[in-house]
Amino acid sequence: MTTVAASVPVLRWAARRARLADDVLRARFKKWPLWLRGEAQPTLKQLEDFARLTHTAIGYFFLPEPPRLSLPVPDFRTLRDEALREPSSDLLDTLYLCQQRQDWYREHARMRRPALSFVGSANVQEAPEAVAQRLREALGLSVEERRRMPTCDETQRLAREFKVSTLVVLHRLADGAT
C-alpha cells in the first residue's frame, strides 16, 4: 500500500470545516490519530475517501497550510453580531451548485427560440380550459393526437420535447397574470 504525504494542518482544517468529530473520523479511518500526529500517512484511496467525506478538493491536502476560502457572494452571515470566519463545506457546495445552475440557465436563456404565438395571449379573466385548448393546438397536442400514441412512453417522449417551451409559456403567463 502506497501512502501519500498529506498535510496535517489541512487534514485538521478539512475535518473542522466539515464539522466532523475525531471519534467519527477514528471510526471511519482507524489511523486518524496517527495521521494527526504525523506518525502515519493515509493511502491515496483513504485520502480520496476523506476528501469526499469532507467535501474538500484532494489537491488541498498537499498544501502546507489550509487555503483561505471566501464566499463567491457578499457575506452577511453573523453569529451574535460577529462575522463568521469561514464558510462551511456545505455552504460552499450549495453556493457552487447554485452558480452552476445559474450558468446553465444563462446559457439556456441565450439560446433564442422562435417566438411562440400564444405567449402573452392569455389573461386571468379567461377560462383555464380555453387557454389550455389554445396551448394544446399550438403545440400539436390534441386529444386525438394523444389517443394515437401507441404507448405511455411515446406520449411522455412527446411531452418532453415540448417541456421547455411549455415551461417558458407557463412562466410568462404567470408573469403576465401578476
What labels describe this entry?
mainly alpha, 178 residues, elongated, 8 helices, 56% helix, two-stranded antiparallel sheet, 2 domains
For the sheet with most strands, the description reads: 2 strands, antiparallel
Arithmetic mean pLDDT: 81
The ordered H/E elements are HHHHEEHHHH
Radius of gyration (Å): 27 Å
Beta fraction? under 5%
Tally of strands: 2
The main sheet orders its strands as 1-2
Q: Structural class of the helix and strand makeup?
A: mainly alpha
Helix content: 55-70%
Unreliable spans are none
DSSP helical segment count? 8
- Give the number of domains: 2
Molecular shape? elongated
Distance between the termini: 64 Å
Please provide a brief summary of the model.
The protein is mainly α and 178 residues long. It has two domains: 1-67 and 86-112; 128-177, no CATH class.
Walk me through this protein's architecture.
By secondary structure, this protein is mostly helical. The protein has two domains: 1-67 and 86-112; 128-177, no CATH class. 56% of the residues lie in helices and 2% in strands. The protein has helices at residues 8-17, 22-28, 32-37, 44-54, 89-110, 128-139, 143-147, 152-177, and strands at residues 78-79, 82-83. The chain has a two-stranded antiparallel sheet. It starts with 7 loop residues before the first helix and ends with a helix. The model has no long low-confidence stretch (mean pLDDT 81).
Secondary structure topology:
Elements: H1 8-17, H2 22-28, H3 32-37, H4 44-54, E1 78-79, E2 82-83, H5 89-110, H6 128-139, H7 143-147, H8 152-177
Antiparallel strand pairs: 1-2
